[in-house]
Amino acid sequence: MRSRRTTLAVPASNPRFIEKARELPADEFFLDLEDAVAPQAKEEARAHVVAALNAGGWGDRVRVVRINDVTTPYAYRDVIEVVEGAGANLDCLMLPKASSPDHVVWLDLLLTQIEQASGLPVGRIGIEAQIEDARGLTRVEEIAGSSRRLETLVFGPGDLMASLNMKTLVVGEQPPGYTEGDAYHFILMRILLAARAHDLQAIDGPYFGVRDVEAFTRAARRSAALGFDGKWVLHPAQIEAGNAVYSPSQEDYDHAELILDAYDHATRVQGRGAAMLGDEMIDEASRKMALVIAAKGRAAGMERTRSDESSA
């Protein structure tokens, strides 16, 4: 599992922003060739992307490029120039406005052809698919199962809100007048269910009030509570909050590791299907739940502070 607690959007046409991004502690960054780049700047932006990826300095962060959507005249050149120029230093391509599984299949096929022609390992470059309109949401299960390259499904709130005619102008915020519950709950759950059914990660979309860290944190906590793996960030101020929200607490991480230890001892040494951890009974279901928390903690680089229940 790649850690994607925070995914930093970086305009590919701005070398200063690209350089700044190298210093920021987001788990993933994506160099954006789509919405952040004007049509007349897209060709030059591709060159910036290739140079930035090949220059390195990204550490262990996930390296992603968002191409233009498949209905535009830019998409195929984005894929060809970026992968031929810097495919060895690229982890994933992000596919915006994925409204059909055919869009993912097209990208998968084109990637395979470029990899074969360029001598790159076939299948190593992953795909992140953005769900950004009503058509994509209604076909999200098909999209999630359309390619072995898929690693994540990403909620694209701005375009999806427009697609649904939502009455709001702040991307990521609840629409005015909606006072009962969360207007995005159904959308988030549908994306999450499709992702988990195909062993993919689920990433929440951005919150555009970039300086309101409290509001960003509030929005992030909703999707984190459901089980989302991370969220887009648009500003350095959002990164620390996002990393904290999508990481388990130290107490929960330690507890998860203790459950795994205790259950392993009970089944492997004692031959039992259930055990006690202090006053808590644990079984196979407990192990599965603990694996989720432990995996997220390990991916985030957390270390245990407790090795047995007696040290609690």
TrEMBL record:
Q: Which of UniProt's keywords are assigned here?
A: Lyase, Magnesium, Metal-binding
Q: Residue limits of the HpcH/HpaI aldolase/citrate lyase domain? A: 5-236
Q: Which cofactor does it need?
A: Mg(2+)
Q: Enumerate the InterPro entries for this protein.
A: Aldolase/citrate-lyase_domain, Citrate_lyase_beta/mcl1/mcl2, Pyrv/PenolPyrv_kinase-like_dom, Pyrv_kinase-like_dom_sf
Residue runs in coiled coils? none
User: What stretches pass through the bilayer?
Assistant: none
Q: Name one GO molecular function term.
A: lyase activity
Q: Name one Pfam family in it.
A: HpcH_HpaI
Q: Per the record's keyword annotation, is Metal-binding included, yes or no? A: yes
**Magnesium in keyword set:** yes
For binding substrate, which residues are annotated in this chain's numbering? 66, 132
The entry's Mg(2+)-binding residues are 132, 159
Q: Which PANTHER family does the record associate with it? A: CITRATE LYASE SUBUNIT BETA, LYASE BETA SUBUNIT, PUTATIVE (AFU_ORTHOLOGUE AFUA_4G13030)-RELATED
Q: Protein name, please? A: CoA ester lyase
* Taxonomic path: Bacteria, Bacillati, Actinomycetota, Actinomycetes, Streptosporangiales
